[in-house]
Amino acid sequence: MAKSPTIRAAVTLISAAALILAPTTVASAHPEADDGAIAVDDGARDVHQHGGDEGHLPATQSNVELVSKLKLKNVVPEKIADVGVFNGYAYLAAWGSVECKYNGVHVVDIQDPANTKEVAFIQAKEGSYPGEGIQTVHIDTPAFTGDVLVSNNEKCKDKAGFGGMNLYDVTNPEHPTPLAEGVGDSVASGQGKKDANEIHSVFAWDAGDKAYAVIVDNEEGTDVDIMDITNPKKPFLTAEYDLDETFPQILQNGPANLTEIFLHDIIVKEIGGKQVMLLSYWDAGYVTVDMSDVHNPAYIGDTDFANPDPELLESAGLAEKPEGNGHQGEFTLDNNFMIAADEDFSPHGSEGTTDDSAAAFQVSQGDSTPNLHGGESLSGDAVYVGQACPGDPAVPAAGTTASGQQIAVVSRGVCTFTEKVASIEAAGGYEGIVIVNREGFDGCGQIGISVEGSTPTFSVDRQTGLGFFDKEAGFDNAACLAGTATLLPGVSLGEVGDLINLRAFFDGWGYVHLFDNSAGKMTELDTYAIPEAHDPAYAEGFGDLSVHEVATSHQRNDLAYFSYYSGGFRVTKIVDNKLVETGSFIDEGGSNFWGVEVFESNGVEYVAASDRDSGLYIFRYTGE
Question: What secondary structure, in 3-state letters, does 406-462 show?
């Protein structure tokens, strides 16, 4: 193909500290846990959403009554995660990504929604914390009758922490009793509860004489794990699935950036006599499966992400690829619709091409190095600089190449990303830095990077890095997964490769989809976002303007409630197959809502919302 011209926007690159979402499992599972790799995770955001007049959207209140709010004990900013409600009590996760203490579940009496009080705290096991998976279900089986709270376990101390799920008897919510803790799919059977795989979420249901919980396995491709909890004191793994292999039709043909095929969240609802599981797959969309027989799941339907991104095109007039990021969904009361929430913390996308091919490859930008923003680009000839660690051969200074600009290509391994950047900057002359993943780590795939420096820094997967020097044909994924090499084979220090073109573009924050709940490929009827979420003027300085979760009304077919992080609490109605905002609330000094859950008290519908920085809010929708 013809050579691409070297293009660079005449703009100043501004450093932006933003969490980079990357398609990896938790990096701490590897010896180089502290090198700077970032995994897909709902990490601490540090967005300072409460207090002062800046850094958040202005306070607003429309058709929403704030019934009460309760600051929970031992809460610091970003400490509160998901919320679940059952029989007059709310259960809120205190998670450990901020600090690895006071982790567990707050129990709040909400029988009088206007006068709530914390009545118990369930302490998580040392080094473990819950996050997304907080739910209570009534179980009535031959082995057990009572109310069971389920929660997930992720680790903030790798050696001490538990994985798996926890089950607690909360028949008396003010005196919860452990039934089983740290149970799930084990990395190595017989190694003990601490070796159960970490899980991101959990959902339980009563199926008559049997009861089950489905858990999101963070550590295996078979990430749909079904636990038999008929006797919740003795739960066991009864089935596990990799649904994109079981039902390959859930994958879509393109665009090429939709590569993160992993499960994030699930619910199960009885519809038409079937136990219908709704699974949220990050880049494969939303999937419905009949799980009436957990050992013989049956495909019902799934969604695709439309290309170009429909909300970005409608709101901003920009045509870019969809980002995926399927996070969580629910059915409406009448089951005619499915409403889905895509979580996206970065309003700027980035990608690269080379002069060998116009096909784009994925890149992640460093969190504490100068970032490209929408409309900015950077080009240069690839120059291989090895590992660039202390004690390695010296990084060659950037020389003269065809484009007149050079981008250092460096292998991940041995030292931190920040040390690599420092070595390259000391050599001098490079316009940018690209870190290539090593063998055996994070699936050899794309990684997010936490890195400091004054040079724009990016990351790519192993195969892309080899392609910069025309070595991609020799890439073997299985060999890469099993290997240990860091350096690029057959590429010498200082070797010049392809012309690399990197660009950034505005693509907005995460938003909401409305689907017709039908068999086969579901029809997308509408999308919804708060106005600021697709306005470049709000890309920075106003907190996270992404949706997080949806909860549908228990009384009305047309009503849905959203926790919208810094966008506050939102309410929509379905009008003529469209999502129309009819209610909103942002507190004085800002909001930071994670979870949202509907409940009833004395026939009145309320909504519990968890604010990450404080605790529990209870709302009542007052619109028509």
Answer: EEEEEECECECHHHHHHHHHHHCCCCEEEEECCCCCHHHCCCEECCECCCCEEEECH
